[in-house]
Amino acid sequence: MVKEEQELANRPDNTAFTQQRLPAWQPMLSAGIVIPGFVIIGLAFIGIGVALFVTSHSIQVLELDYTGVENTEPCYRCSDPSSKNCVCTLEFSIDSLFEGPVFFYYGLTNYFQNYRKYGASRDDNQLSGDLDYFKSPGNDCAPYQYNSNNKPIVPCGAIANSMFNDTFKLYQIIRGSKKLVPFDGKGIAWWTDYNIKYRNPSVTPLKNAFNDTVKPLFWSKPAYELDPTDPANNGFINQDFLVWMRRAALPDFRKLYRRITEGDYAKGLPAGNYSLEIAYNYPVMSFDGRKKVVLSNVSWMGGKNEFLGIAYLVIGSLCVVMSIVMLIVYAKFKFPEED
Amino acid sequence: MNLFEQFHRLANIYFVGLAILNFVPVVNAFEPEIALIPICVIMCLTALKDAWEDFRRYQSDRKLNNTPCFIYSRKAKKFIERRWKDVRVGDFVKVICNEIVPADLLLLHTSDPNGVCHIETSNLDGETNLKQRRVMSGVCISDPDFEPESFNSLVVCEKPNNNLNHFKCYAEKPDKEKVGAGIESLLLRGCTVRNTDHAVGFVVYAGHETKSMLNNNGPRYKRSKLERKLNKDVIFCVILLFFMCLNGALGHFLWLQALPTVPPYLVPDSNGHLDSPGLSSFYMFFTMIILLQVLIPISLYVSIELVKIGQIFFITNDIDLYDEATDSRIQCKALNITEDLGQIEYIFSDKTGTLTENKMVFRRCSIMGTEYPHKENAVRLAVLEESEAEENVLFNKRPQPVKPRWSLDTEDTNFEDRQHQHGSHRKSKVAGNAQSNVAFSSPLETEVIPDRKLLQRISRAESSSRSSRSGSSSSQNIDPYLDFFLSLAICNTVVVSMATAQRQRVNGFSHSLQSNNPMDPLSNMPKKSGYFSNIFTSWQRKPNRNRTISEDSVVEGDIFNLPEIMEEPGDINGLRRCSLYAPTNSDKPATTSDNLSYEAESPDEAALVYAAKAYGFTLLARTPDSVTVRLPSGEDLVFEVLDTLTFDSFRKRMSILVRDPITKKYVLYTKGADYAIMELLGTPYAENLRGIQKKIAADTQHHLDCYAKDGLRTLCFTKKVVSDKEYKSWFVNRQRALAAIENREQLVMDTAVQLETNLCLLGATGIEDRLQESVPDTIMALREAGIQVWVLTGDKLETAVNIGYACRLLEDEDLVINMSCKNKLTCTSIVDCALQEVRRYNEDPRNVDTTPDISLVIDGLTLNMALSSDLQDRFVELAKHCRSVLCCRVTPLQKSSVVKVVREKLKVMTLAVGDGANDVNMIQAADIGIGISGQEGMQAVMASDFAISRFKHLKKLLLVHGHWCYTRLANMIIYFFYKNVAYVNLLFWYQFFCGFSGTTMIDYWLMIFFNLFFTSAPPIMFGIMDRDISAEILLGVPELYRTGQGEGEYKFSTFWVNMLDAFYQSLACFFIPYLAYQGSDIDIFSFGTPLNTISLFTILLHLSIEIKAWTAVHLIIIGGSVVLYFVVTLAYSAVCVTCNPPSNPYWILPRQMADPMFYLLCLITTVVALLPRYTFHVLRNSIAPSPLVQAKHLDQLDPSTRSEYIKEWRSFRGGGQVKSSRLSTPPSPTLETPVGMYPQSPTVSDIMGDEFTLNVISENYQRHLHL
């Protein structure tokens, strides 16, 4: 026998794998088997849908368009590109307590921050504080790389250049007098952006790092002076700058401006009249855009979004309906075990 | 070289084009370097695969190149040992016995005094018989010590070519005399020198110019049907891509047009200049191509190759396709047509060696019009077969049927003896296995028990001829009986070798096609010869016993001792006495003949020589110039061989011209196919017996017909006495023909025809070629699988029809249309007539549900006419309606033209299977060529795409592996298209929201990884391992094979349905997240990450809907893909801070994964995307289950109920096993029909005289009960 075994050197291995006999589970997709699955999925989805819907419903949102397209609007005056340092005021009222913490967003529509070349127009090395790139910004930044005097622009690129520069102040009008609603500008950007991705050069004072550079063309003040009140909020780690640099995915977007978490308004905005003072700088007429401010509170699922809840409800119900259809099919076409 | 091959592929050119496009700054979508990654990975993968193959080749080459050999050194004046790689043209090389010839050598000297060198060419063509090569004559003095220095001629030879059977050269001696030489003086590289101590040759071709190397042209590239279809769909993808890009460009244009002025997000070029909308949308078109390039599934081609490698791995590893007898697996030579195995509609099969064993067994003979049926021999064969069959079960058990027959044995043939005998049986089988490379040596073939009557007749003839010879009158007439056996022994090319001097096989020749025995042959030699003697002893006893039971013990006696017997002519008692002492005679010289073993080029010849031996006419030796035959009287006759007219397929006969040592006459013995011989019969044996000769011819013809009906191969033997004058004049012609340079073959053949006239019929033989095991079963299964089986054979009609019935190609109840006509006109009318008949048969309402049981039998001549251009269409139409077609007497060329016509006219997938050189054309013409590595050499295997060792392997190869490979690959390809479209469309939809600017919301690295790593392994695994139905069911229910035929599963509609599904799924995957994130502060990559994750889940879950059988491997790979995705993406987003500007993947996924919305989105989107497909599957499986689904249900039952269901199913489908009773017989067709069952014996006139026959042989239809 030993001899024979030797002879059969070419005999294939007789294993389950090589003989394709591995134990296998063969799921059969037929009506009888999937009904329970459909029912369970359907019910679960309806449950989730209800939860989402209720949550979404409890979120309060207030949107105020201040573009000033119509001449009746308070900011119509400012929408003229020629006007400089224009300030306009928007009045609105809240009927019931706007529960806190309230998030204050600015919104733009028809603004394609996701435009490919726009997105590429930045220099991450510069933004991470590398001084070499202060002197010679990356070519991606062109034409916002050097100014007409061939001085490097810091921060370079189209994104930085086009930074949103309207500023807002919210007042509650209490018996005719304006009471400033305090804004919290800390931590509105991603923690990783603020602490890791974007770095200022380790030069003190910060201003010295920007020697021999110029500010972006559209900017009114250099990067190291973005926030005069807080020295830690300047340069590339300015929260507003960070928020802007994180490009929006879709052309209609909003970006977090401030949070209202302090003082009398920590619990929310009480009912009453409010006045919003807008330093109107950012031109949007060139692309038929709209500007707005959005006041919203958030839940575990983020901002208000009815869609997801409805979707869950619809699909859940559909699954239930399907399971009924399956049941009918199953009753009509039983398969061979039975016959 | 490797890279060059890569670029040869159009796909790669496309890929490179894309990469170049990426380097054009105005259109690039990504960083150009990154864009090169996919092509690099894919090319690396292919290159790696090729490099590995190259490496293996290199290793074997190196081994071969360093093989030692002896080259003559002019300095040392002797042969010194060098390496193969040192061999140069013009060297003298000495080859020792059993060495492999290192280059093509012109043979100059051998150790043999006759200047003969024996070689074995199994490395080249698999033929294990010995071939003779002769020293180039007249160039060297053939003294015992050859001195290469003395060779001073100029050798001129033709340019290197790959024809193994042809060679021309001449040597010009110093005195300007030219001496020609042909293939008979050439030792081909790769051959092994046998039976010759040493040989010296002059290298004419070396290295790559050798004939064997020129023949060695790597694996052929065939494109499978699926791939051709796939390419069409790829073109659709290109069109789709074009429209999507156009859409992008147009959208970009309109978007730019709609902008009132320049917005801040529109970035001008470095000069501050903005392109016009038209120009930038033109650029955008190309950007879109780069962006959406994945739509063209380049990686699909690589994946397909990988999948096929995996599939071939499984095919070659199938233990059911392994043949233990030859220790060989199935060989896959074409690597890229595995899936074609699942789509075969027509099989063209050779008969001899394919359906049959090609182990020839002498069964019967007819001499001078008398038939000798050899009944004892038939009994022996039956016993042998049974015992062989039983051996497999239980070795110790004695074969039952044999026992009673032996009961008459004398006491001393006791139990042990039988045991021993049986043991030797078994050993002989083992030995046969071990030595399967030694041709035709199993006892089945070598042993023939003589017919008693014939034996008597011979002894009478012998004595009479002796007496007449001893008497002064040198009788002109040797007894035809003796002549018959002489011709059996002489008229062949069998080479004699001694069994004790077994050939040593040399292993390790890299081109070796046959699986060599790993044992060291030398060490086993004594054992082997031991086995042989065992065989012989056992068989010496056995006939003894068989004869003891016979009623009259006249011829009792050991056949091997016949010479002894014959020494006392006519004395019957003496005969008996001798036989009693037979065992003691074993040391007498006569028994040495036992040790002879014959090396024949064709098994027929060996069988005949063995048969002659059984009657005492032992072929002792053969040299080019003489044949030595030992007569029953013990006398050795040495015939001088004057010429051998070798066999060719045109003449269909061979002759040998010898000089009778006694009468000194020139005698021509001719053997050949009956129809090739019968028309050459001329001058009768003796003038006064004209009438008798005619009668003999008629009787013999009748016997031949009977033999053919029994499925025996027939050969006729004739003799012709050539007068001196005739010979001399012919000899001159012959020499002229042989010396001719131009048109030599034709001239030589013409001279052969000249001589082969006026032959005188001696007799005929019937040789059985047994069917291989499970051939009928395989043919039945293939037919149930919807495959039409055609058998193309060179045999005569009756033999073919008989084999047809034996292997169930034809059934008793079939309507057999027999077409055979001699002129075009009748042929046309027959075809028309039959076509009409067949149509009517099919339209008959009673035949609607049954498979048409119509078979067609056609002969070569008719086939030629039927295949002519005007009849072709009608013939093919007719053949289409026939379930099986039997073509007999076809030439190799006809075989291939039949295949071509059917393949082109019917546009079907064809498979040709054959084992011999005559099948090569057919094998190459078919979509798939399958070679059977049998006894007829390796040409068929070399030309084939797959090489199997038994015909029955075809069943599993097609029904199981073919089905699997096809469904796997088809599903994988469809899935691949789907996957790419579904993923790429996500990007496309996003373009609507980014101003058609070519932005991706997914980091490019992750996109590349998505295709290359996260979602590539599962479909490949799916393509290799998915198993829709188990092998048992596929074999049990051959109908399932039909799903793959024709369009199969990979239909045009399937493609588009999947494309639509892909569109739908991409819509769902994009717009559900879009609607959920609409108006929020989501950033680009935070938006893209859930999309990427969702599509990963969707794509993988889609696959898991398609997967039919989950094994641990499936789970691991799919689970592993998901894990890999998360690990890689998390790692990437945790590490890459500014590594891939301008994209910004840092910390995106971790942040998303902390958000419950992410999970909620993933959940609902995946469900929405897959719900339609899932529901569709469920409903289809429930409402209208395909046969495959039904079969799958069977798979889940336990084996016993399953086999019951299979039976029921088959009867339900009318498959064939359970044939119901005959319900009705439809009205007979208009043609006058003999109602009798076939086989009705066709008379001689049927074959010879009739203009044509179209007889509907049988028409007992069977109807199947439809339950």
TrEMBL record, chain A:
<dbReference type="GO" id="GO:0045332">
    <property type="term" value="P:phospholipid translocation"/>
</dbReference>
<dbReference type="InterPro" id="IPR005045">
    <property type="entry name" value="CDC50/LEM3_fam"/>
</dbReference>
<dbReference type="Pfam" id="PF03381">
    <property type="entry name" value="CDC50"/>
</dbReference>
<comment type="similarity">
    <text>Belongs to the CDC50/LEM3 family.</text>
</comment>
<keyword id="KW-1133">Transmembrane helix</keyword>
<protein>
    <recommendedName>
        <fullName>Cell cycle control protein</fullName>
    </recommendedName>
</protein>
<dbReference type="GO" id="GO:0005886">
    <property type="term" value="C:plasma membrane"/>
</dbReference>
<dbReference type="GO" id="GO:0005783">
    <property type="term" value="C:endoplasmic reticulum"/>
</dbReference>
<keyword id="KW-0812">Transmembrane</keyword>
<keyword id="KW-0472">Membrane</keyword>
<dbReference type="GO" id="GO:0005794">
    <property type="term" value="C:Golgi apparatus"/>
</dbReference>
Automatic annotation (TrEMBL), chain B:
<protein>
    <submittedName>
        <fullName>Uncharacterized protein</fullName>
    </submittedName>
</protein>
